[in-house]
Every structure is written in structure tokens, then in C-alpha cells.
Amino acid sequence: METRSNHVLVGAVVLILLAMLALFTVWMARLNGPSASDYDIFFKQSVDGLAKGSTVTYSGVPAGQVKQIALFKQDPQFVRVRISINDDIPILRGTTATVQSSFTGTSTIELDGAVKGAPPIVCPQQNRHAACPLGVPVIPTKVSGFGAVLNSAPKLFERLTSLTERLTELLSDKNQASIAGILENTDRLTKALADRGPEIAATLAQTRIAVKQAGDAAEKIGDLAQTTNGVLSSDVKPAMANLNKAIQSAQKSMDTLNGTIQDARPGVKTFSDRTVPEINQLVHDLRETSESLKSIAQKVNQGGATSILGPQKLPDYKPKDSKQ
């Protein structure tokens, strides 16, 4: 019994020592290896092919690995991926993360876009919870070209399906018969045009001649317009100058006449106030004189010149003889 107890005790001590040695080795490996920092990435796209332990690269250079993948409880449309990045990799402002998918099924996280001289990505002192909801710095994301293609693949397949259905409807038996009729009519029209080729050529030639004649007529009209402009410039302008001179002379005459009328206005007023009434009286007297002379003339015509000297003497009355 004592021998067995000693063996068990010795075995337990040996196992403990081996465990301690393993822990010491791991601790020493960590001390000798590069230190790492944790970052969170919130993807709104699918992260198919990404798993714990997947590689994280920075511009193609291995930089760390994925530590955890989970839905973000505060907003389940985001997938939270926590990564561990070696401290010798500069994670500066401007750095973005993308999921690089492949047809083999495995995916990696690609980091790039850091700006030279920019500060590192850290959790700020102010508004820390909003910037770092889980206590570690957050690296923003961007959609890669291949990832965008994969994300839009369902919509693309749906559109391809719809296009296929429409093509099937377009190429139905009825539509094929209609297309065949259209092609047949097109063939007939082509043959008819070929048969009428000489007539069409002649028509085109006549059209070309008509266009040329129209061009010549337009050119002649232009020359006529220029000639008309020259005539107007050479003949009408002197006439207009003479007309302007005549108008100016007439204007001067009108000004002189106005001055004369202004000068004569006082005399005209005196003539109107004095002379005109006297003339009226004279006309009245002449009218009365004329009436008197007319009356005398009538008396002379009727009774002779003696009628104006006195009344006409009656003849002596002689009584008739009674015998008679």
C-alpha cells in the first residue's frame, strides 16, 4: 500500500512540474514574442468564410489574427469582429478594414489606408463609450470590390432570372412568327429598292441639280441685295440730304412767319377793335342808301322823272253834255 501511494504521489508531483514547465515556456514565449493590441471591427456585410484564428493582414503583410466573431447586441445588423494586431504594426487614422473573400471559402481581414503622420487610432477621453462601445478602439470598414460583388450576387441572380423569363416570352412561337414576317417584308422591300435603283439614282441626280440651282439662285439674290444696298447708299443718301435741307429751309420760313405774325398782332388787334365796327356801320349806311336809291329808281320807272318832284296832277273834270 505504501509503495503504491508513493508512486501516485510521485506521479502527481511530476505532472504538476510538467504543467508548471509548460506554463513557464508559454510565458517566456509571450515575453520574447511581440505584444499585441485588440481592436473591434463592425461589419454590416456578411463575413462568410471568416472564423476565429483567421489571418489579419496589413497591405498584404501578416499583422495579427481574429480573436472573436459575434453579433453586436446593441444593433444585430452589425457583426462585431475583434482582432489582435501586433504593436509593431501602425494602426493610424485613415486605416480601414475589409473582408477579402475567395472562392475556396476562406476569408481574411485586410487593413490599409493609413495616412503618414496621422495619429494612431485610440479611444478618446471624451465621449469614450460612443467611440469605443466595448472598451477597445474601433477600426472603420469599407466594402471591397469583390465583397460588393458577392453581396449584390442575390440581386444579380434575381435580375438574371427576370431577364431570362422576359427573353423566353419574347422568343415565344407567336413572336417568332411575327419576327419571321418582319424579316420577310424587309427582304421584299430590299429587293424592291434594288429593282428601283436606277430610278432612285436619277431622282437623286435631279435633286442634286435642283439643290445646285437653288444655291445659284440664293447667290444671285445675295448679289442683288448687295447691289440694292449700294444703290440705296449712292442715290437715296443724297436725296435724303437734299430733303433734310429743304425741311430745314421750311422750318426757317415757318419761324420767320411766326415772327411776322407776332409783330403784326397789335395792329391786327387795333384793326379788329376800331376799324371793323366802322366798316360795319359804313356797310349798313351803304345798304340803306342802296335801298333808297332802289326806291327812287322804281318811282322813276313808274311815274317818270316828275314823280320824284311831287304827286301826279289829276286831269280837269269836264262834265258831259246832257244832250249828248
Automatic annotation (TrEMBL):
Gene3D superfamilies per record: Methyl-accepting chemotaxis protein
Name of the protein: Phospholipid/cholesterol/gamma-HCH transport system substrate-binding protein
Classification lineage: Bacteria, Pseudomonadati, Pseudomonadota, Alphaproteobacteria, Sphingomonadales
Keywords: Membrane, Transmembrane, Transmembrane helix
Start-end of Basic and acidic residues biased regions: 315-324
Region (Disordered): 302-324
A Pfam family hit: MlaD
Domain Mce/MlaD: residue ranges: 45-112
InterPro entries per UniProt: Mce/MlaD
Organism: Stakelama sediminis
Transmembrane region(s): 7-29
